[in-house]
Records
---
Amino acid sequence: MAVQMITAEVRSWIAAQLQEGYTPEQLKAAMRASGWAADVAEQALLEVTSGQVLAPVVAIAPSGSVPEPDLSGGQTRIEIDGHGIEVLLSMAQPRVLVFGGLLSEAECDELVAQARSRLSRSETVADSAAGSEVNTARTSDGMFFARGESEIVRRVETRIAKLLNWPVIYGEGLQVLHYRPGAEYQPHYDYFDPEHSATPAILERGGQRVGTLVMYLNTPQAGGATTFPDVHLAVSALKGNAVFFSYDSPHPRTQTLHGGAPVREGEKWVATKWLRQGEFN
Ligand SMILES: O=C(O)CCC(=O)C(=O)O
Ligand SMILES: [Fe+2]
């Protein structure tokens, strides 16, 4: 399964052709003829045409569109670049998927090794200030990798993009969190609160978050599940597995309230990939 990325070059080519007087239908046919999938060609055109009116720099995926694997054939296993991933659970509302073996043991260990020396107490956007500050709801340590910063980061990001049919450039840098015994992440939403004063500035860089992939980099001895309180679901933190959920609007009706339950024994490492509506830079 190949993913076709709508790059800035593709968008500017489309924009130039439109200026020349070609119709969107003609461009779509030309893109189809040179191997582009119909839906990707459609999305590229939409991005350019809506971008000309709404946001000249940042491409925004059609509203309501979210990352999603292709399970149309009832697949229980998805192979990406020779790496097999199992589909262990699929829930429609909220949209939650659990993947087995998204990362190999060695890949988990390498991400932990690269993150370990760069950890600091996690910050979330607090309600009181238009910035980030240490929040007691989240008692883990964390760091961000820059997108594509190392071979392992690039490999994982490419795999995620292909699995979820969402361009690499729409993703934030990978975040790694480390929870010690007793540490937790209390239930929260990952989208940016539309009522929050800091949100408009955040949305300028790629729009809303529309999906979250939490990858487990080790297996805590006890505790540390990812929980979805609205639907009483707990996903076990098992090394190499991952939980994915998407939200097509920044609203509690998505039922994507979730948290990291307290680690009871041992420690917990996760890598989180947040996916935006458009190009994150
Ligand atoms: O640690 C977990 O299980 C959840 C992490 C999480 O919610 C996040 O990184 O946004
Ligand atoms: Fe979260």
---
Amino acid sequence: MIKGRVIKNYNGYYYVDIGEHDLVECRRRGKLKQKILVGDELMITLLGSYKGIIEQLLLRRNSIRRPAVANIDEMFVIMAAKSPDPNRFLIDKILMTCEYGGIHPKLCFNKCDLDRAAAEAYHDFYTRCGYEVYLVSAKTGEGIAAIQALLTHRMTAFSGPSGVGKSSLLSRILNRDDLSIGSISNKIQRGRHTTRHSEIMKLDRDTYVVDTPGFSSLDFEHLQPRDVLSLLPDMASCGGICRFSSCLHLSEPGCAVKTAVAEGKIQKERYETYCKIISSIAERKR
Ligand SMILES: Nc1nc2c(ncn2[C@@H]2O[C@H](COP(=O)(O)OP(=O)(O)OP(=O)(O)O)[C@@H](O)[C@H]2O)c(=O)[nH]1
Ligand SMILES: [Zn+2]
């Protein structure tokens, strides 16, 4: 058996990178019941001529569900500094979705050429929340080198809502005019119809980039309130202990979270995100 990584899942076949130029087209063993995601590491048996069978799924380090992708080393959440104007609640929900999957993402604001002041304000805000923030422009090339420098020997995912310039940015980062050029194998066509699935592009032996289109945020309503807090690392680490162990940090007396908000240790907008999500959970229970 040899170890490989799923690069693409198409029509019931898994295309597995085993460190060679060509991918191995694999079926799964019938007894293997787990769902296999793009990015999964697994053990396969070669059946000759770049065909194989998946025998075993190796332990995942992390995963996100929609789109499904596993074992990401780095996730960039891309937003635009302007046009479309970012919405803090949406950004928070995307960040929280990554945290839920076990990934502490980095934030990247594209289109900084359009509104420098807005970009700087978002930079400051999310840096205070404990995220690394990159200000870039696919148009002018600003900040692109800093992202390129982080890619080597890792699997880096890029996600972001429609219109933020993710395609333009990825073309710049990968130095490709057209992302379909240099696609991992000519067996696999990267067309418009495939863009709802994650696709891994292999840049080098152990350097991969994942385009995660159609990223949708978690349905927070099934979470417990304390789990919501744990997805906001800046709030979770504020340090204090509330008077009541069951404190939801809304209107209870002696609340350490509210004290931290009042003292400016937690930014008000992040607390508002928390309150909105908690009230949507309460709505559901009603
Ligand atoms: N001013 C400016 N415009 C940009 C920049 N990056 C992208 N754009 C423009 O923003 C628009 C959207 O860019 P795309 O790269 O298609 O965006 P996308 O996020 O991949 O969009 P979808 O394909 O809808 O997911 C295009 O008109 C781009 O020319 C930038 O850095 N600055
Ligand atoms: Zn509290």
